[in-house]
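Same chain as my last thread, 505 residues:
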Amino acid sequence: MFGDPYNDQNKTARMTIIIFICDYTAGNGNPTFVEEVNFAYVFHWYTSLVCMQSVASECIAHDPFSHVIYDLSGLSTLRQNWMVSIKDDERERQVYLNVCQRLAVPSGCDSNAAACVVEKNNDKEVVVIPDIGHALSPPVFNSPGHLSLTYSHGNFCREYGKNVTYSTVIHFICSPDELHQNGLQFLGKVGSCEYAFLWTTKAACPTGDLMSKETCQLTDPESGFTFDLTSLQRTNEPYTVESPVGTFQFNICGKVVNGCFVPEGKQPVEDVSVCKVDKEGKLISALAVTQNYSLSYSSSKDLSLTYKSGIHASDSSGQEVVIRFPCFNSTAVSEPKFIHYESGQLILELKTPLTCISGHFDCNFIDKEGNEYDLSVLAKYRGENWEVADNRPQYSHLRYHINFCRPLNKVISYKCPGGSSAACQTSTNATETIGYNLGSQLNKLEVDNKGTVIVSYSDGSYCENMQFKRSTKINLFCASEEGILRFIGETPECQYIFELDTPAA
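reply #2:
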């Protein structure tokens, strides 16, 4: 700024604008003139000096279908690099590499490299390629038990007459019997500039934890139980919790509404899910953004919702907010509770019946005559349930969704309650409204004196009169072929009756 004046009427001072742009291959780079506009000379400067440095990336991948988590961080090392022998350009060489972060001991290689190539020369180790890739992105889920990790933007490389950079791809294959040793192999080079490896290891097996990203539902593929926190999302006001370190406002799986107000007025901060406020509800600091959250669960931990302050999931900087949801099997409304706040991590708790997993649905039984039945063949999996329309003219808009031996599966075209609900009622007039739970508890299977197998679910949503809870009864009739589910009627006690012809009976 404040350069020599132009020859205009106002004698406007000239200025220069330099825009620095990341280019891993440019080194220090040089400025390039772009244009002269608005009394300013604009330059672009491509340089590696403004590129994100490879320190470490998130080392977790998750299966978007089963929601199981894979964690390769156990292979990351801080003391000694992994080493594998390769044959490159007809020469015996070695590759040093680390997992999800830069080399532990550079040993002459680039300090930001996650992998490099060396060779022996007269008993002395010589660096051949200082950098064959930076750890800039997390592992990628390819298929169950198969992950891949790519390191990019290594040293300059020439391939097919073009300027590119060296890169490294490591394919991880789950092997329950092998953790570290003997599992890392060199597959070869793809073209001239990409090194490919195969690593067979126990670390590439599922952890037993489940995760879903930026959705308020999470399904356990083993039990079929769906955790669904959608009904906890508030549309009129935020949750508020007092603590020794201040007051926090938050929402579940979404942005805060009518809260986290900017100090100047009653306007809430946009796309904030958790914030710290003063006694008047004015914003002190935003702790988490709406675009970056995940649900996670394992058999040893409560379901938890994690918000991060960065827009991207791999952004490990800044604040992290964890909201735990312990099982609380009661109709009473629970209030959020402050647990802990330290080192940028806020932990809250909200008890709810939505995370209470019911007992196992046992669909094998023997009647008093000694006949054995197995109804598990009637179970539906992933993306579908048994469905039937209400045949009463005044209720023709109602639809019923039922599963056997396991909870209902999530289906995009309608919304049923999550959790252990095995039967629900929805309406075609309100497709965005969550339906009624028609039963979560599988009662003892029975066979009446006519040979009809009776399946019943209890402990559903309260009826409109609040006197009874909704329940479901399904009569199964022995048949040589599978029939369709039929709606029979509804009792004054809100029990919904169905029939099905099936060989399973």
